[in-house]
Design a protein that fits this description.
Radius of gyration: 25 Å
Order of helices and strands: HHHHEEHEEHHEHEHHEEEEHEE
Shape: elongated
Helix content: 25-40%
CATH class of one domain: Alpha Beta
Length: 344
């Protein structure tokens, strides 16, 4: 079946276990276009080409181009979903916090965690006949709490029909940014307060209280190094903080390294001399910095893909069309995250 003869219908959004794009790909596999002018386009992009819909650039079409035929209208929800998702992925700091992402097709999910003592983590020599140290993996008592985050698209079709798709995409990407920010705050709250199970809160280390030296309210390089040293056998590879705490962190003379500045100018990413990526999140208390080993700390659980009210969008009932994502976070290993309290 060629891409220009596929019948598009609403039911393609209701296929169990498959997204709209995956349904299209099953009907029109991209592999068959290798070596042709359509190589590099996925099945959805080929449908845009079929109906002559230009979604970006100087010659982008108006929104109403999607509704020129019954078939092409079916493509509109997928367009909305893709643009919102691109907004979620732009400058997304979540990957610097996550050990893994788990996708589920249900609203209930119970994760696992490891139970470790200092003796379990210490390297040891196994003598002949000696017992091998164990790592206890257990199922958590409580389910992962999933949150629905999103925005309601409130606009009449008449208000949007003559708007350029390029401009409309800017608004959709902003919705993606809203969802991304909400999920980042959910992740940070889980790191700080735990996931509702016992012993999943991050330990808080205060400046001026052993094992940290210094004066409460003053962040110096010595305290940052002392905080870093408390992570063994893990490593502190991500630091999360709000604006005030990060300003204090970046004022430390030892962090004003020319190489750090060059990396920021070239990539827009801040890296400390201790090798940790810096993530800004203003939901962190202003006198605290969170350090984690992202390899072992947090699991993101996603219930399905980004969801849009496809039925309303296809029928041009945009006045109350919701765009949402359902996700939660699980603390895999509480010992791999700690909080540095600067103090007043």
């Amino acid at each position: 079946m060629g891409f220009d003869s596929i019948r598009l219908e609403k039911g393609m959004y209701q296929t169990s276990g498959k997204s709209f794009s995956q349904v299209l790909e099953s009907l029109d596999p991209s592999e068959q276009y290798q070596g042709t002018a359509l190589e590099g386009l996925d099945a959805f992009q080929r449908q845009l080409k079929r109906f002559g819909i230009r979604v970006k650039g100087k010659g982008s079409d108006n929104v109403e181009k999607f509704f020129s035929t019954v078939d092409s209208a079916v493509l509109f929800p997928e367009f909305v979903s893709r643009v919102v998702r691109s907004g979620m992925e732009e400058h997304n700091p979540l990957p610097d916090l996550l050990a893994t992402v788990t996708n589920i097709d249900a609203m209930d999910y119970r994760s696992v965690y490891t139970v470790e003592s200092d003796a379990d983590l210490a390297p040891s020599y196994l003598a002949e006949g000696a017992s091998i140290p164990t790592v206890n993996v257990r199922v958590k008592e409580n389910l992962v709490h999933l949150n629905k985050r999103g925005r309601m698209l409130v606009a009449s079709y008449e208000a949007l029909r003559f708007q350029k798709l390029d401009l409309f995409s800017v608004m959709l990407r902003q919705i993606g940014q809203y969802i991304q920010k909400a999920q980042l705050e959910d992740a940070v709250r889980t790191i700080l307060d735990g996931d509702g199970n016992d012993d999943t809160q991050s330990a808080v280390l205060e400046i001026g209280t052993a094992p940290l030296t210094g004066t409460p309210g003053t962040l110096a390089y010595a305290q940052l190094v002392e905080f870093w040293s408390q992570f063994a056998p893990y490593e502190m590879n991500t630091i999360i903080g709000g604006s005030k705490a990060l300003v204090e962190l970046l004022k430390i003379a030892e962090l004003q390294d020319p190489a750090t500045g060059m990396n920021f100018q070239a990539t827009g990413k801040l890296i400390t001399p201790l090798g940790a990526a810096i993530v800004r999140c203003d939901s962190v208390p202003e006198d605290q910095l969170i350090g984690i080993d992202r390899r072992f700390n947090l699991e993101m659980v996603q219930a399905g893909d980004l969801m849009v009210d496809y039925d309303r969008l296809i029928d041009r009932q945009m006045e109350r069309a919701a765009v949402t994502a359902v996700a939660g976070f699980n603390k895999i290993n509480a010992a791999s995250g700690k909080v540095l309290s600067i103090g007043a």
